[in-house]
Design a protein that fits this description.
The structure holds 2 protein chains of 2 kinds.
Chain A: H1 19-33, E1 42-46, E2 61-64, H2 70-80, E3 85-91, H3 92-98, H4 100-109, E4 114-119, H5 154-160, E5 165-170, H6 174-186, E6 191-196, H7 208-214, E7 215-217, H8 226-234, E8 239-246, H9 253-256, H10 274-282
Parallel strand pairs in A: 1-2, 1-3, 3-4, 4-6, 5-6, 7-8
Antiparallel strand pairs in A: 5-8
Helix pairs in contact in A: 1-6, 3-4, 5-8
Chain B: E1 5-6, E2 13-21, H1 25-38, E3 42-48, E4 55-65, E5 78-81, E6 98-101, E7 112-114, H2 117-124, H3 130-141, H4 146-156, H5 162-184, E8 188-189, E9 201-205, H6 206-216, E10 221-224, H7 231-244, E11 247-250, H8 254-266, E12 271-275, H9 277-282, H10 284-293, E13 297-303, H11 320-325, E14 334-336, H12 341-358, E15 361-367, H13 368-372, E16 374-378, E17 391-394, E18 411-417, E19 422-424, H14 438-449, H15 451-458, E20 463-466, E21 472-477, H16 481-491, E22 496-501, E23 503-505, H17 511-516, E24 520-525, H18 531-540, E25 546-549, H19 558-567
Parallel strand pairs in B: 1-8, 2-5, 5-6, 6-7, 10-11, 10-12, 12-13, 13-15, 14-15, 17-18, 21-22, 21-24, 24-25
Antiparallel strand pairs in B: 2-4, 3-4, 3-16, 9-16, 14-23, 20-22
Classes of the chains: A alpha/beta, B alpha/beta.
């Protein structure tokens, strides 16, 4: 049994057959295989939604915050203690809808976190309304005449903003998803994985069968070429699974913070310099 | 023949500099206050300005006195208009106001002493030196040794070409010449005998006081979105972040700002955000998150007049209700409202320990007036200030929300100890796991709310001024404090007692005793409806008998409050 399995019984709130169970499997084995990571140093930060419940079902530190707001919390956790392995996780509504602004700006910061977004192209917990990634024409209780908005393309957006690791997975490909998560955690800088998965209760369009028929594994692609990555991300038709773009060696958010230039210790271990404070106050004489 | 202006019986001189944004009156304020302080005088300065980068009409008030001086007045003894339009100041100008400027252009009924700052500046080397001319003139009226200004200018522009230094020195000289002439001809008489040793006092403004308070409180993580008048604190802290090794990040919005603050506290740092009412409105949901997750937070709200964008660069105390009620659901918070620069420093410093100890959000309510007010005060004593970090090292069976007698569970930090720290915005059990068990819900609500009683009993009592047994009780909170004190003295009513609240929530139950015996309760609030008066009524059942309110964007002036206090009858 994975050490990231909880040592007590839990009642998982996902619908039977939900893709989230598969993603959980991938996460558990990825964490197990990431041997260098200490369990007590792993922090999951999530928002609200069915996907955001993931940390509840793992034996990790977590901050399960507000809908859409996982990224700002994750940024601060990493900035306050760069030795932690920080994983932000949530769904498409959470991360691309409510939290869209944070998505844009934390890519720009290149904060060294892993960002896992469960993308089932529908709102699950609120029972079936359109999400930013819902496909045109899908009828819901709110979009009664069918979705008309252009679907949000998270990969294209991330690549165009300079995200340093951008990948797409599909929950049905447990092994590949696990590998992508490991790569993302090991990547220095912001790493996003958009994980496609079906919503068995509310998305009758993008089903297991649909994903099987409309995804393919990326085989020949230069993942260091940003324009090619972007081209791949906006290509119509089947959705490619794998790494779209990867840029190693860039400066991360914490690399640029002056407080970590000489001292890598977390902020909680530090003491305020009272002498310096007295000097500062006296400088106003 | 010029009119004569005799200020020799004044204990303080109130100078107003007015001009467009971009004319350098801010620099002028800086030079004058620093040099006058150096001379051993006490100074007070505050600005009122328009929400624009260039143009408009702004003014700065500088009060100078051998005695303590720390409050806003309407009175103008000497007016230096670098821009001739006085329409916004007319109501404050009297026959006793000495106005120096270009007679032809200035729009006022009062006499003007002819002097063109522009012409003098151009003679010295260019229009931009007008403010240096003004500083030379003002300092000479106050008998300050002109060499002090020369030394200052030479040091300030040391990296600039000699031409610029020379032009500044020449501009100062022309100003001094005019000032001396006015003194020698007997046009103006001022007597200012310095009494204090300048090296025992500091000259800081409200933004700096809150900023240094945050540093003293151990703040090591700042995330904010710029918004006047809260930005001064953000810029001050950013300026200190390299020296003190802490994180300052400009958030993408205020929602992110407070969520970041919570993330920082969760990871063991001491997070802080500074904003104004509009920005704090966006933080409401994260306030609630702090409540249910029992995560400490400190937020500074520098108020400005609302609703919505309101008057972006002006002052008001209109956000008390927002601070009191922000965030959905029931949870505990504390709100401080500094009345002066000392309180701005110490209350901010203490906010961090309080937030940490009680695992609650703590708010500091100031306003544009306090942020932009600067005056000389004794150097702060750092002995009462300490950083008491409240987190613990966790064991492997650690539970973040363990039930305890006082409702406070030891707060762990991820990565420190063998335990896992699990916090949740959903209702949760002791382990931090989601639950919908109604018994747990009730227990958790009680656990979180239990600390309110302790916080009430510990809450700061209002400071008492005037006659402690007076039956006319004046009540104020936050920044009007110094004006109320001056007006109280001016009114000289022996029946008046004055209570100043520097903590507005929770209220100490013993406050009841201080207002119960009052024949008349007089509320002073810089807002439209008297929000604190409502809170006192809600808490203690006592209605205010009179309300002195102001919501025109300006602070209360000492004169306005004096007039109001003089009219107050006891029966």
């Amino acid at each position: 049994m994975s050490k990231y399995e909880l040592p007590f019984d839990i009642d998982m709130a996902w619908c039977p057959g939900c893709g989230n169970f598969q993603i959980r499997k991938s996460i558990l084995s990825a964490l197990d295989e990431l041997g260098q990571v200490h369990q007590t140093d792993v922090v999951f930060v999530s928002g609200i939604g069915q996907a955001a419940k993931m940390p509840q079902y793992l034996n990790v530190n977590y901050f399960n915050g507000l809908h859409g707001r996982a990224l700002p919390v994750a940024l601060a956790v990493k900035a306050a203690n760069p030795s932690l392995t920080v994983i932000a996780e949530g769904g498409d509504g959470d991360m691309y809808g409510e939290g869209g602004n944070h998505f844009l700006h934390n890519i720009r910061r290149n904060i060294d976190i892993t960002h896992i977004v469960h993308n089932n192209m529908v709102y699950g917990l609120t029972k079936g309304q359109a999400s930013p990634t819902s496909q045109p024409g899908m009828k819901t209780g709110v979009q009664v005449n069918g979705v008309v908005n252009e679907p949000f393309n998270p990969l294209a957006v991330a690549i165009s903003l300079g995200a340093s690791f951008v990948a797409r997975a599909y929950s049905g490909e447990i092994e590949q998803t696990k590998d992508l998560i490991k790569m993302a955690v090991n990547h220095k800088g912001y790493a996003m994985i958009d994980v496609l998965h079906p919503c068995v209760s509310f998305n009758k369009v993008n089903t297991f069968k649909w994903y099987e028929e409309n995804t393919y594994k990326i085989e020949t692609h230069d993942e260091t070429n940003r324009s090619k990555a972007w081209e791949l991300a906006i290509k119509p038709g089947k959705l490619g699974l794998g790494v779209y773009y990867k840029n190693e060696g860039g400066k991360t958010f914490t690399d640029s913070l002056s407080c970590y230039q000489k001292d890598r210790s977390p902020l909680y271990k530090r003491k305020r310099n009272q002498k310096k404070l007295a000097e500062l106050i006296h400088s106003w004489i | 023949m010029n009119k004569r202006y005799d200020f020799s019986d004044h204990t303080d001189i109130a100078i107003v500099l007015s001009g467009e944004a971009g004319q350098g009156i801010k620099t002028l304020e800086y030079v004058l206050t620093r040099l006058l302080k150096k001379q051993g005088l006490n100074v007070f300065s505050c600005k009122e300005y328009m929400s624009r980068v260039r143009g408009g009409l702004n003014s700065i008030q500088i009060r100078i006195s051998p005695e303590k001086v720390d409050a806003w007045v309407d009175r103008i003894d000497i007016l230096i208009p670098l821009n001739p339009d006085l329409s916004r100041l007319e109501h404050r100008i009297s026959s006793k106001t000495m106005i120096i400027g270009e007679k032809e252009k200035i729009t006022t009924k009062q006499p003007v002493i002819e002097f063109s700052f522009q012409a003098a500046a151009e003679a010295a080397g260019g229009k931009k030196y007008a403010n240096t001319v003004a500083s030379g003139l003002i300092l000479s009226l106050l008998h300050v040794d002109p060499s002090l200004l020369d030394t200052y200018l030479s040091q300030k522009f040391v990296d600039k070409p000699q031409k610029i230094i020379d032009a500044n020195l020449e501009a100062a000289k022309l100003g001094v010449k005019k000032g001396r002439a006015l003194v020698e001809k007997g046009v103006v008489k001022i007597q200012m005998v310095p009494v204090s040793k300048s090296d025992e006092k500091i000259l800081v403004n409200g933004s700096q006081a809150v900023g240094m308070g945050a540093i003293a409180g151990g703040c090591d993580f700042v995330s904010s979105y710029p918004m006047s008048p809260g930005t001064g604190v953000l810029e001050f802290l950013a300026g200190q972040s390299n020296a003190f090794s802490f994180v300052v990040e400009q958030a993408e919005d205020e929602i992110a700002a407070l969520n970041m603050v919570l993330g920082a506290w969760y990871a063991g740092a001491r997070g802080f955000a500074t904003t104004s009412g509009g920005g704090f409105a966006l933080m409401g949901e994260a306030m609630s998150l702090a409540g249910i997750t029992e995560t400490p937070a400190v937020v500074h709200i520098a108020q400005r007049p609302g609703p919505a964008t309101g008057l972006p660069t002006r002052t008001e105390q209109g956000d008390l209700n927002l601070a009191l009620y922000s965030g959905h659901g029931d949870f505990v918070r504390a709100i401080f409202a500094p009345g002066n620069l000392d309180q701005a420093f110490y209350l901010t410093a203490n906010a961090f320990n309080l937030a940490d100890a009680y695992q609650i959000p703590v708010l500091i309510l100031t306003d544009q007036y306090l942020m932009d007010s600067a005056y000389t005060i004794p150097v702060w004593d750092l002995d009462p200030v300490s950083v008491k970090k409240g987190f613990v090292k966790t064991d492997s069976d650690y539970c973040r929300y363990r039930y305890t007698r006082n409702g406070l569970s030891p707060r762990g930090v991820p990565g420190y100890g063998k335990g896992l720290v699990c916090v949740d915005s959903d209702e949760h059990d002791e382990k931090g796991r989601i639950t919908e068990d109604w018994k747990t819900r009730e227990k958790m609500m009680k656990k979180r709310m239990k600390r309110l009683k302790v916080l009430e009993d510990k809450a700061l009592m209002p400071s008492v001024h005037g006659n402690p047994d007076g039956d006319i009780v004046v009540v104020a909170w936050g920044s009007p404090h110094n004006m109320v004190l001056s007006a109280l003295q001016n009114a000289g009513n022996p029946r008046m007692k004055y209570l100043h609240f520097s903590q507005v929530y929770p209220l100490n139950p013993r406050v009841r005793d201080t207002i119960e015996g009052a024949k008349k309760l007089v509320l002073v609030e810089n807002n439209y409806s008297g929000q604190f008066g409502d809170l006192l009524f809600k808490t203690f059942g006592r209605k205010m008998n009179e309300k002195i309110l102001l919501s025109n964007g300006f602070p209360f002036s000492t004169e306005f409050l004096t007039r109001k206090f003089k009219k107050i009858q006891g029966d």
